[in-house]
Amino acid sequence: MRIAVFSAKPYDRRFLEAANADAGHDLVFYEAGLQSSTTVLADGFPAICAFVNDVLDAEVLQSLQQQGTRLITLRSAGFNHVDIEAAEALGLTVARVPAYSPYAVAEHTVALLLALNRRLHRAYTRVRETNFSLDGLLGFDVHDKTVGIVGTGKIGTIVARILKGFGCHLLAYDLYPNDTCRDLGVEYVALDDLFARSDIITLHTPLTPDTYHLIDEAALEQMQDGVMLLNTSRGALVDTLAVIDALKAGRVGALGLDVYEEEGDLFFEDLSDHVIQDDTFARLLTFPNVLITGHQAFFTEEAMSNIAETTLGNVTAFEQDGEVLHPVTTEMIA
Ligand code: NAI
User: Among this protein's residues, is 263 annotated catalytic?
Assistant: First the structure.
């Protein structure tokens, strides 16, 4: 099947071409992101392939459908950027990659935790300047600390397993508690309780209307002074302005982010020659106790191979049976 691949970086190309050696689809790569002005690039393509910051609102979906597209295949697990109701109404099939490597994201979360705690981001630059002073690098033992995991699906469960190995006390909040976590000794509690008792809080829920700004001013007020907050899920789980206020007041002790509310205008591009126009993001960069990575938690060899294979598997199934392996439907957002 002919597939227009949007937001295609060299690494996407490498993994998709490798997976396509068996699948045999006709891949056309576009560096451009998908938005209303670029839908024309997919004119006549029965399938398009999109990533997390591509725009898939009703307007874009309608244009794609009018141009002959029938399948939207996402190279991501999250589908909060797709107007699923509009897609269904237009008769478009939407597919995703539900799990490619939960280990990749869980391990990156723990990397942020450890780097922030031991100030590795500051130590690295200091030592390169032959500054071996330890002032400002004081951390704490992760052992015996209480970690609150919000969302214990595939990723949150692996975070729990890793942190169990560190000797942490584990609290969790999820709409659907799971026995794997219970067997690890995770204590499921109400969200307020988790906020109040945790030294470290890490977010692993999808972005939905219910989880939008889950961490807002009211939530931050319930947390312990000096709490470490980690978000490797979706930026809009956190009200960034509220967290900046809490950082300025010293109430949040450390913030680790792999995602940001307005990352669509920033992440995945080299902007080092540009003036950043987003003042909120620029403010975040000024804090010594904030560590940000640009949506790279998923980015491992294993995850990229799985994403490419599952994405093309969705297309092959659609071509052969008219149904994808991993559909996204309106029931999933109900
Ligand atoms: P999952 O679907 O396995 O787990 C999500 C968990 O959140 C489920 O247990 C679900 O019951 C729970 N949940 C949903 N709504 C909730 C609510 N309102 N309150 C409490 N719990 C709720 O998903 P998985 O694979 O663990 O991924 C989690 C998120 O991580 C994804 O939705 C995605 O946004 C993000 N992600 C980030 C990546 C990155 O590179 N930074 C890569 C992959 C995923």
Answer: yes
